[in-house]
Amino acid sequence: MYNFDIYQGSGKQSRFELPTYQHLGKLDEPSGYIASDYLRDAVNVALALGQPLLLTGEPGTGKTHLAKSIAWELGLGEPLVFNAKTDSSAKDLFYRYDSLGHFHHTQIKKSDIDVNDYIHFEALGQAILASYEDAEVQALMPKDLQLKGAHKSVVLIDEIDKATRDFPNNILHEIENMSFMVTETGKKYSIQDQRYRPIIILTSNSEKNLPDAFLRRCVYYHIPFPEKDMLRQIVNKRLQLSEDFQQRMLEAAIDHFTEIRSKKLRKKPATAELLAWIHILDKLDVKIDVPTPEQLQKLASTYSILAKNPEDLKRLREDL
Fold this sequence. Notes:
Blueprint (H helix, E strand, L loop, with lengths): L36 H13 L3 E4 L6 H11 L6 E4 L11 E3 L1 H11 L9 E3 L1 H7 L5 H4 L4 H4 L7 E5 L7 H12 L1 E4 L4 E4 L8 E6 L7 H5 L2 E4 L5 H11 L4 H6 L1 H12 L9 H14 L8 H9 L1 H4 L3 H10 L1
Parallel strand pairs: 1-8, 1-9, 2-5, 5-8
Antiparallel strand pairs: 3-4, 6-7
Helix pairs in contact: 9-12
């Protein structure tokens, strides 16, 4: 059993051996992703139509990881990711121009500088450049993408609800046409071969601010929070639990987690918290079905994994 009392907080030095870092199973590996039948069907519809797949759902339901799963299963490498921000514009999907750095170096060197050195291509821009066989265009991409030659990519445009309301509508033209102009060089880039047209995955934590025109041009799927059976599958696929815990405590842990999510909390724990929590329950040999003072104290000590604010933590400990 894992020694949980390494740090005493008593002002005295301890002699305990520090634990070796352990990666929590397959938390981030795409081979551990499990898609429901409906989600799988939505992906295949989007692939058949060549339309973007828009995913909504509360944080922790697997929206972002789906892009990794698709890219991995189809042998397309790591997805290219664009994280939307409050000030994101449609142009930002393709490239960023470091005007300040360009100006600064021009003043220092007092000579001609290649403007391409100050242009950084973003996810959708890289995916379009990846459709070129031309060596000059390939040279504009990151080194790891150049090694692949012309290829198809998965592009994840993450959390589009963080951007302005106009952002989804503004990117429709760009996504449909797969073409952009670099103003600073005057060069235009477009998909060269439709075989290499990227697969677009968009995510949003909210459905409220998405315009109708945008929704009409997407394949849409809302990922609900997993039911108990799916949670069990996720845990078994991603964690290497001890045999004793797997047989005796897994059902009790999932039941307790589901009960916690049913409470009126400010922030409900997601699957990432569930996996970390079950991992530490196994390490500490916490017996949820044995409500002795010792076991309840152990269980309460793990709630800091599930609760992310003082009100929720207080509520969980009081209910326990």
